[in-house]
Structure formats: structure tokens, C-alpha cells
Amino acid sequence: MSAAQSDGGGAPLLRVDDLRATYDTEGGVVRAVDGVSFELRHGEVLAIVGESGSGKTATSLALLDLLPKHIGKVVGGSAEFDGIDLTKLSAADMRAVRGARIAMIFQDALTALNPVHKVGKQISEMIRAHQRVPRSQAWERAVDLLEMVGIPNPRERASNYVHEFSGGMRQRAMIAMAIALEPEILIADEPTTALDVTVQAQVLDVLLGLRERLGMSIILITHDLGVVARAADRVMVMYGGRKIEEQTTEGLFANPQHPYTKGLLRSMPRLDSVIGDRLTQIPGAPPSLVNPSEACRFAPRCDFARPICDEQYPAQVSIGSGSQVACHAAGDPTWETNT
Amino acid sequence: MWIYALKRCGLAVVIVFCALAALFALLHMIPGDPVSIALGPRATPEVQARYAEKMHLDEPLVVQFGIFVGNAITGDLGMDVFSERSVTLIVLDQLPFTIVLALAGLGWAVILGIPLGCLSAVRPNSWLDRVTGLVSVGTIAVPSFLVSIWSLLVFSVMLGWLPVLGAGDPGDLGDQIYHLILPAFAVGLGWVGYLARLVRASMLEVMGENYIRAAWAFGLPRRTVVYRYALKVAILPTITLIGIGFGNLLSGTVFAEIIFSRPGLGKLIFDMVMNRNFPVVQGAVLVTAALYVVVALVADLVVAWTDPRVRESL
Asked: What are the phi and psi torsion angles at A302 (to 5°)?
């Protein structure tokens, strides 16, 4: 579960460079993803963390060209995956990538699985969309997959509909569907958010076990830092459609750089905190991304903002060992950002 | 599924029974003494009493209702006051014409309306969507009797392509179909627009659902996503509506039947009301109501068969 597992030396599996995506809304054009760059290495779990509206889901939808039709679109940047630029694929080529090479699972499995088709049918349909296998064989594989993700009585369960599954089982069923074709990348968009804590842990274990077994890379989108600490090798923090910090998981928890990241960590309960202490919250609300200014987007909520923060967006500063932060205070020893 | 079907059938029986009760109550609320209507003003009291006894009109209401229900169940709907023919036979004579007309009218509306709505939803705001939308609202707004008269004028009188009246020679299927074209067109036209609008609306809603986005994300081909994953869900409210529509058409074909001088249930009820021939009206209404319930039942069963969630809801 450490960075040592990934073959850090080789070329990254996915290299996203300056990705930009917008939503057309009645209020104007929302710059949901605003120049995001990151890399995903083989076998690595990269967590994307941020609050609602920070652009973490939009980033992953943009990669697979799944932004809402007629509203969202990718407007710039590239996403190089195994020598191909995902942003320039034709619809047919993109369809061949989706599910088979890059699969995605969603937050609420009840609404993400079709209500009028049997679960096994949906999994086998997905297999047959990419491979020429007979119906019966695809069904057998669906049963095997359900077993693989830990669903008891998989043969009977394959004939059930999604509303007959419990929350954890639905998520497992969706994971089974996502790994059916052994994709190289699995994008998990808040896979545990809708679940109880114990079921959360089980689902995470399933995901991580499959990572070991199939050698997948996982992009884990979450706002739950507990999930991050448990599962991720590296963490990328997003705020206002931009990446503001990226570090190894250990590095981020031990030594967060951006004031927003520090705020996030302080808003989490700790084992060593004094009983009776209140959790800190970050004051203010996330910024509107309609025609955002060129200022640092966190400046209005930042306790340490200086005039320059309202004037220009901070450049991405490398702080060693692949870690980056976008803050004017970074590397300035005179600029105190700890409370 | 079977349990659901059984419960639903039980419910249907209850509804038909309620319809029987309502009909019976209505008949007894109509002013006038059936005996004096049947026998005329000059009948002696003895004759009147004998007639009342024969028709069980001297029994208490509850007993009369029991006899009425019993007769209805065994298929005896009474006698035509004038011709003394069995009402059941009269109604059954007319029924096939109406059923065929309703089926044909709704049939072509379904075949055209559902794909149109579907295509409109897949490409919203395309020229096809706009034209369909405009034409749909137009056809919904125009009443069927107007369509009947105009299509009669244009296609039969001016162009002479299609017959003006009748249902065609009995036994000659080709001729019957030939006579069916215009009435079916007139009856179904409004439904084309109606179904297209409904399917478009529910398709658009379903296409925005998470499971459709997930289906795209799993790389399913467009055809599978649109027709197998989205349409199968979006069609459900339409099935219910088609059931109701068919029930409505059983008596709603009356304009087309009168204008095209076709036999049929609607025309029968209309004629018999004009003649104050209440036993026939009563029988025809009862058969219509029962058919309505049966069609609604079939629609519900189709929906339940398609949507597993519905099966568990009753």
C-alpha cells in the first residue's frame, strides 16, 4: 500500500496535462476543471480530495467524456493514456476504452444500476459489449465476478434486481461490473459515501484486494480523509476546479502545505485530541466558478492571505519527491501558515 | 409475479362489481316507472302487476340487485325493449367493430408515436424534435370528429381514394381493412402526438438518470443504452396510458363511427340513448366498463412484468 509498490521509474499510465472542462449553466459558464495536471502510475491508488463542487468528479467525467451532454465539455488540455490522448478520441474509440480499459464506479449504486434488468444480466451485457462471448458464458463470468467481490450465493444473486440488494452489495455488484474486463484504471467516485462505516471498510477492502490481484491503478475520489489514509498512495487536493496540493499520503498527513489542506486536516477528529475540544471548520463557502478571477481562489477564506493572493493565482511549486503545492506562502519561510 | 397478477385480478373483479352497483343505482334513480313505459299507458293494473312480477320488479331492491348481478355473470344482460332480442347478442354483434377500430387507431399511433418521441428525446432541439413537437401539439388539439370530417372530405370525396361509409363486406377481409383506414386514421391521429410527447418527456428524464451515465461509463453501445436501458424504463408510464386510452376508445370511437356510418359500440350506445332503449344502453355500458377494467388490468400486468419494482408494491 506504499508508493514502493508502484513501479515509480516507468512512464505513468495516465498523464493529465492542463485539463480544462466547463459547464454551461443559466448563470454563465462554470469552469469546473480549470487546468488540472496529474499523473497516475501503474498499480497506484491516487486519491482526489476536495469538497463538493471542487471539480474532482468533473475531472474524472471529463477523462471519459461523460460530462452531461449539451452542458459540459472538455475545452482544453490532454490526457495521455498508453500513448493515446483521451480528449481527442472518436466516440467509437472512446466507447472501446470505457469499461474495458478505464472503468468507473459511482457513489450511489442503487441509482447507478438499472432497475429493470437483473444484476447478472447487466454485468454480462457489459462483457458482451466489449467481447464476443456467448450469452451463457458471459453469465457464468458475471456469477464468478459476483463471487470475487464477496457476494454470497452469487448464482442466485445474479438473478436478482438491484432493489433486492443491500447497500453494500449494490456497491460490490457495481465493482464486479467495473472489473469485469480487468481495466487498467478504475475510477471510484465516492464509492463508500452512501454506506455505513462497517460496510465502507468492507468495500474498501474489496477494492484494494482487487488492486493487488489485477494490478489495477485506482483513482479514488472522496471527501473522506479516513478513506484516504486507509487506501491511497498519493493524494491530490482540489479546490475551486484546480489542484492546490499533491503529496504522498504519509507526506500529506504529516506535513500538509496548503492552508486549505491544513484546514481540512484540522476539521477531522483526532485520537489524541483533548476531549471537549471543538473541531475547527474552515469559514466561508466554496467559490463560484462562473468567471472566476485570477486571484487565489482560497484567498477569501484563508487566514494567512496577503495582498498578492488577491492579485494573482499562485504557481504550482514543487516541494520535492513529486509533491507540489499552489500557494504563495510555499517556500517563503517568513510567511507563517500555521495556527 | 403470479401473486401480483392474482391480487390485481381480484381487484379488477371488485371494480367490475362496483361498476355493476353504480349502474344499477343509476337506473333506479331515473324517474319513470319501467312497467308503464314497457306496457304503455293503457295497460290494466292486472297486466301491470303480472309484468312487474315476471320482471321481478315487485321484489325488494337488494333482491333485484342480486338477480341483476347473477344474470350479468351468466351473460344475460336482459332484452331489448322493442325487438325483444337479447342485449348480450346485440352488444356482441357490435363489439368486434369497435375493438378492431380502437386497436387499429391506437396501433398506428403507437407504431409512429413511440419512435418519434424516442428520436426527439435522443436529439433534443434537433429539427426532427421541433417538427414533431409542433405537429404533436397540433394533432392533440384537433378533435377526432374534425379529423374524421376533413379526412372524409379530402380522401373520399375529393380524391376518391377511400370509401365514404360502412365497415366493408362481411367476410371480405381486404374490403374491411380498406374501410378501416380512414376511421383508424381519424381515431389515432391525436394519439400519435400524445404518445410522442409523453415518450419524449419520460425518455429525457430517464436519459438523465445515474444508471444511464453509468451505462455509458461501462462502454455499452449506444443502441443498448438508448433502447434496452432507457426506453424500457421510459415506456412504463406510456403502457399505462395506452391501457387507459384503449378503454376510452371503446366508447370514444362514437364520432368516427357516426361520421363513417360504421357499426360499433359507440354508435350503438348513441342510437339506443336516442331511442330511450335503456336495457341495451345498460348492457353496452356494462360491457364497456368491464372491457375497460380488463384492458387496464392487462396494462398493469405488462408494466409489472417489465418493472420488477412494481411487482412488490401491491
From this structure: -90, 130
Domains and CATH numbers, chain B: 2-73 (no CATH), 94-311 (1.10.3720.10)
What is the separation, in whole angstroms, between the first and last Cα of chain A? 32
Compute the distance between CA of residue A141 and CA of residue A149 in angstroms, rounded to an integer: 12
A126 and B229 within 8 Å at the Cβ level: the answer is no
What are B213-267's pLDDT values in tens digits?
A: 999 999 898 888 998 899 989 988 899 888 888 888 887 788 888 888 888 888 8
Q: What is the pTM of this model?
A: 0.79
Judge: B308–A114 Cβ closer than 8 Å, yes or no: no
Q: Is A246 helix (H, G, I), strand (E, B) or coil?
A: strand
Let me know whether A91 and A132 are in one domain.
no
ipTM of the complex: 0.84
Same domain, yes or no: A191 and A336: yes
The answer to whether residue A176 neighbours chain B at the CB level (below 8 Å) is: no
| A273 domain-assigned | no
Residues A119 and A6 in one domain: no
Q: Kindly list the residues from chain A whose CB atom is less than 8 angstroms away from the CB atom of residue B309.
A: 115-116, 161, 163
For residue A324, the surrounding DSSP H or E stretch is strand A324-325
Same-domain check for residues A230 and A330: yes
Nearest-CA distance B59 → chain A (Å): 55
Which residues, listed in sequence order, are joined to residue B148 by a DSSP beta bridge? none
